[in-house]
């Protein structure tokens, strides 16, 4: 009888130890990797190592040759250089920026561009249109000083000299007015890296 009790206790103890060991093994497994496909059109609109040029805006500006250059990209974060010159191609500048991809804002995907200086608030940019054949996009945001709506056309370098029929049509429908930002001298600034860091 005593031998039977000892065997039962041994079996219970061994079973509990085995379960504990099994639980420990399960808890040390690596976490699952999220390999679900990326569907956010914003990701595809900025996913290029080419410069992306701002070709036109709906408001007059003294900024010319404005472009974005990819530094890093994930499903949630977009790091880029933002370069531009003033009218007359003086005071060329560039700065590192970071944007966080949001979800769907009504019917448009959006990203929040963080401000690097001081305590200024960032800005939301909504992607109103993306054309993966013409490699161009229409973005809207809000002027931080006037709160007026801003509208811009962004074009990859590979198609900057082409006639962008569909993007131009959508821009004209949604942005109402056009003020050029890109001109024929802009290529030299990127190719020769004339843009300098902000002090």
UniProtKB/TrEMBL annotation:
Gene Ontology molecular functions: amine binding
Q: Which Pfam families does the protein's record reference?
A: His_binding
Q: Which domain of life is it from?
A: Eukaryota
Q: Which GO terms describe its biological process?
A: symbiont-mediated perturbation of host defenses
The yes or no answer to whether the keyword DNA-binding is present is no
**Keyword terms:** Signal
First and last residue of the signal peptide: 1-18
Q: InterPro entries recorded for this chain?
A: Calycin, Tick_his-bd
Protein name per UniProt: Lipocalin
Q: What organism is recorded for this protein?
A: Rhipicephalus zambeziensis
């Amino acid at each position: 009888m005593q031998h039977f009790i000892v065997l039962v206790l041994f079996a219970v103890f061994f079973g509990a130890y085995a379960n504990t060991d099994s639980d420990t093994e399960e808890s040390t497994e690596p976490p699952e990797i999220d390999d679900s496909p990326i569907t956010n059109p914003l990701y595809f609109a900025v996913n290029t190592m080419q410069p992306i040029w701002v070709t036109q805006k709906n408001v007059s500006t003294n900024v010319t040759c404005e472009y974005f250059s990819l530094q890093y990209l994930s499903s949630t974060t977009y790091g880029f250089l933002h370069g531009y010159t003033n009218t007359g191609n003086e005071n060329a500048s560039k700065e590192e920026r970071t944007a966080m991809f949001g979800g769907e804002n009504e019917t448009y995907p959006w990203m929040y561009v963080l401000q690097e200086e001081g305590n200024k608030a960032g800005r939301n940019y909504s992607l109103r249109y993306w054309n993966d054949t013409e490699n161009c996009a229409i973005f809207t945001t809000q002027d931080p000083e006037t709160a007026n709506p801003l509208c811009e056309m962004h074009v990859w370098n590979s198609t900057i000299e082409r006639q962008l029929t569909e993007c131009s049509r959508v821009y004209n429908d949604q942005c109402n007015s056009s003020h050029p930002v890109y001109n024929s001298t802009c290529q030299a600034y990127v190719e020769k890296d004339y843009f300098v860091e902000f002090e």
